[in-house]
Amino acid sequence: MSEIAVFRQNLFRVSETFITQQAQAMRRYAPLYLGRFRYGDGPVGAQSRVLGDLWRRAALARIGAQMLTRDPAPYLRLLGDRRPALVHAHFGVDGVYALPLARRLGVPLVTMFHGFDATLSTAAFLCSPAWVNYPLFRRTLARHGQLFLCTSDYIRERVLAMGFPAARTRVHYIGVDCGAIRPRDPQQETPTILHVARLVEMKGTEYLLRAFALLSPTRPALRLVIIGDGPLRGRLEVLARALGIGGQVSFRGAQPYARVLEAMRAAMMLVLPSVYTPTGRVEGLGMVLLEAAATGVPVVGSRVGGIPEGLVEGETGLLAPERDAEALAARMRDVLDDPDRRAAMGGRARAFVTARFDLHRQTAALEAAYDALIDRGVGP
């Protein structure tokens, strides 16, 4: 079995399980996770190597220097005598840092764009030391990377607008494991609305709270469960109390993946009211929508970014304009007030995701793309 390097600067973030799910689903390639730091435990049995292990002393300063220079030598030291057949970088920012390594190894580089890397303004990138090299070397990545994958048609359009070559830029949905995520029994449903997101502006949680406040006066048993953490949590908790819904809203923080799926199985719907931000951040697709749909739960989202690609409006879920709490409440009310429609939408959502976003089918297609790149070689 050939080995590939899965490159992500900050490995195993709780909000990025889609990276390890894709890698662990491969049948013919073995992943070696490569990055700067681990931010959590990797999959059982997974192998990972990070610069934080290489440099025990003055690690931050030495990693900072590597960030500025993009010198591949430290990663080559981590690899030792291992020679992956290909490097797969997640996020365009990481592609810029993985490119020198792939070129030194003489292997193809696959870069996958997920969202902010295709939408955030150049000024915002230049304000971050961790990201500053991205706008500076993005054109170099576009010239020398072998394949650019995008999580949605929306993201592909944005990547092409940045100057990436159309012939080497394609949509690839990561997908969800429809075999492992079984459809829920309707009897498991409880009077809860679920929101799973990092608590940042882009996720639009403020508008969900305001919409829920419009619904809750006539539904005292209804609960809003929010899973996720982030810099806006304190402000959102204050807002919930100010809206008079503090007792009906539960902020549960970041949760293990299994607990998230448990919450989905109990929900009447999942809501992701994402918004465009002034810096350009926007939802690339919304993996949580696909996971909810695979569970047989209808979804309500904003008509922004790649979200419309993750549902069939009126069939598997509903869409609302961004930053419009009243319109969002109306869509949520449509799902709440019609149990038969809710159950039918959930069933169609499961069928839709199984047909279009199955993880194992998508991963097989990814491995076929790896085969083609490796067989063709990198070239001079």
Could you give the topology of this structure?
Elements: E1 2-7, E2 10-11, H1 17-24, E3 29-35, E4 37-38, E5 47-50, H2 51-54, H3 59-69, H4 73-79, E6 86-90, H5 92-105, E7 109-113, H6 116-119, H7 122-126, H8 133-144, E8 147-150, H9 153-161, E9 169-171, E10 192-196, H10 205-215, E11 223-227, H11 233-242, E12 249-253, H12 257-266, E13 269-272, H13 287-295, E14 299-302, E15 317-320, H14 325-336, H15 339-356, H16 359-376
Parallel strand pairs: 1-3, 1-6, 2-4, 3-5, 6-7, 7-8, 8-9, 10-11, 10-13, 11-12, 13-14, 14-15
Helix pairs in contact: 5-8, 10-14, 13-15
Q: Please, could you describe this protein's structure?
A:
The protein is an alpha/beta fold. It has two domains: 2-175 and 358-376, Rossmann fold, CATH 3.40.50; 186-356, Rossmann fold, CATH 3.40.50. Helices cover 43% and strands 17% of the residues. It contains 16 helices and 15 strands. It has helices at 17-24, 51-54, 59-69, 73-79, 92-105, 116-119, 122-126, 133-144, 153-161, 205-215, 233-242, 257-266, 287-295, 325-336, 339-356, 359-376; strands at residues 2-7, 10-11, 29-35, 37-38, 47-50, 86-90, 109-113, 147-150, 169-171, 192-196, 223-227, 249-253, 269-272, 299-302, 317-320. The strands form three sheets. It has a seven-stranded parallel β-sheet, sandwiched between helices. Helix 5 (92-105) crosses helix 8 (133-144), helix 10 crosses helix 14 and helix 13 (287-295) packs across helix 15 (339-356). It is globular, with a radius of gyration of 21 Å. The two termini are 26 Å apart. Residues 71-178 form the Glycosyltransferase subfamily 4-like N-terminal domain. Residues 187-350 form the Glycosyl transferase family domain.
